[in-house]
Amino acid sequence: MKNPAFIHIPHGILYKTIFLLAVIAFMSINLQQMFALGSSNSKDHATQPNILFIAIDDLRPELGCYGAEHIISPNIDKLAREGIVFERAYCQMAICMASRKSIMSGYRPTAENNLHDRGPLINNIPDALTLDQHLLNNGYETVTIGKIYHDDEDENGWAQNYRSVSGDWGSRGYTLKSSLDIEYERKPLGKKGPPYESADVSDNGYQTGVYAQKAIEVLRNKKDKPLFLALGFRKPHLPFNAPKKYWDMYDPKKIELANYSHPPEGASEYNRTRYGELRNYYGMAEEGSVPESDARKLAHGYYACISYVDAQLGKVLNELEELGYADDTIIILWSDHGWKLGDYGWWCKHTTNEIDTRVPLIIKSPYAKGNGQRSTALVELIDLYPTLCDLTNIATPDHNEGISITALLDEPDRDWKKAAFSIWVDKNPKNIGYTLRSEDYRYTEWRDIKTGNLLDRELYDLTEGSLPNKNLARVKLHQARLGEFSKIMEGGYKAALPDSL
Fold first, then answer.
1. CB within 8 A of 298, min separation 6: which ones?
2. In the predicted model, what is the mean pLDDT of residues 10-36?
3. pLDDT at 35 over 90
4. Is residue 437 scored above 60 in pLDDT?
5. Percent of the chain residues topping a pLDDT of 90
6. Residue partners of 481: CB distance under 8 A and separation at least 6
């Protein structure tokens, strides 16, 4: 028998075979490029990108880059010009614990998993593979500074943990002796100190400045492996503590109070809040509305804290540039939920309203084609986990209930989700609000947690750009629209995904 290696092949067949193999190879390469994790944002694993994951607590989208000209936020505004601003981003529940657990776990909050309860995530979902753990498992140096999870979270996914930092402050971050005396006197009663403080101290006189300093130290001592730096600023969460120089940036006489000081006409009784979080602070009325003088002071403190955080973030971003990491670092800035500054006569978060569920979201990827643009696509904070998996070429865990938005980083104006979903769980009485944000409306169903019976509905028109002031679910003209939204709600988030997926 002849050696198979020397079997004669006619030239015609040989050339056709070579041509066919070349075509197959070409198609294979192009198919790999077409299906490479969603978009051109995917990157070769030879040099995985660093990630700067910035959480700003209780920050509503009241920034210069979101049209709020009265807010002094030059560093965030600069980041917005360089990256992509998402104008309609939403949290999954307007409370710190649930929102942060949802982001970091990839699970949506439900009445069953109780993500809104205090305690580590393992109490809610024992086998949850968190974002930090997933990145750690895939070669990242994971570092947390400040508040990423809630304070009592189990954070095993971190190679370095700087959740707590030390400095010249005491309980709840107060610096002034007068504030600390009030805090310690009221603490045994379950009460809190003053709702704000403006000590004449340096940036590092409060926690926010030290968080930035620690972030800079981490960047300067970066290891050879890719870095996931999760930097969680605790302000502008109550109490509104910031150095005096940031209070001095704002003239209290020019601070405008909320346009609507009363709930929407026909608002559901289930969608109301006593804003107990604020009332628990010293000097705040335990019942009734907040006096105008207090409202103005609170708004002043909130704005001062925004500018304080902005200045500290600017230091970190400048250091990123100076160290030469900016061109290979994905930056994501987000807040866990919105906040009411007297809007509807209410304060804090804790409802299904647009003002509580809408959040700022800015993403700057060095590989994105859409940098410098804005997107009006409906996106959700739960999308951040799969997006980061996509951008780092790490497989997204099957359990994840969000979707990657990397396609929007290349094409910010493309068609996207039909709705964004959130919930609110009221413990007493035990009711749950299921809410969705569509292109033009916010629709909410209030149900009994035990029976699932429908208790009430709300529908608000959001096309005018200001706070909606009338529940259209009470209007006969909109009854057909209620049926349409009820079907969308029944289909859930999977039925509202982009048609292209």
1. 195, 196, 240, 278, 290, 341, 342, 347
2. 42
3. no
4. yes
5. 82
6. 441, 459, 472
- CA neighbor of 120 nearest in space, from 130, 134, 111: 130
Count H helices, E strands: the chain? 13, 16
For the chain, what is the radius of gyration of the CA atoms?
Answer: 25
* Tokens at 296, concatenated: 């103005």
DSSP state of 473: G
Average pLDDT over residues 241-261: 95
CA dihedral (146, 91, 428, 105) positive or negative: negative
Q: What is the spatial distance between Cα 272 and Cα 139, in angstroms, rounded to a whole number?
A: 46
Contact 447, 271 (CB under 8 A): no
b/e string for 138-167 if b means 16 or more Cβ within 10 A? bebbbbbbbbbbbeebebebbbeebbebeb
* Average pLDDT taken over every residue of the chain: 91
| CA angle, residues 358, 153, 111, in degrees to nearest 5 | 55
Amino acid at 354: E
Three-state DSSP string of 392-412: CCCCCCCCCCCCCCHHHHHCC
Which architecture characterizes domain 50-418 according to CATH? 3-Layer(aba) Sandwich (3.40)
pLDDT of 421 higher than 80? yes
The structure's pTM equals 0.91
Question: Could you list the active site residues?
Answer: 96, 150
Higher-confidence position of 30 and 160 = 160
pLDDT top residue among 118 and 63:
63
**Which of 343, 443, 373 shows the shortest CA–CA distance to 60?**
343
437 and 419 Cβ atoms separated by less than 8 Å: yes
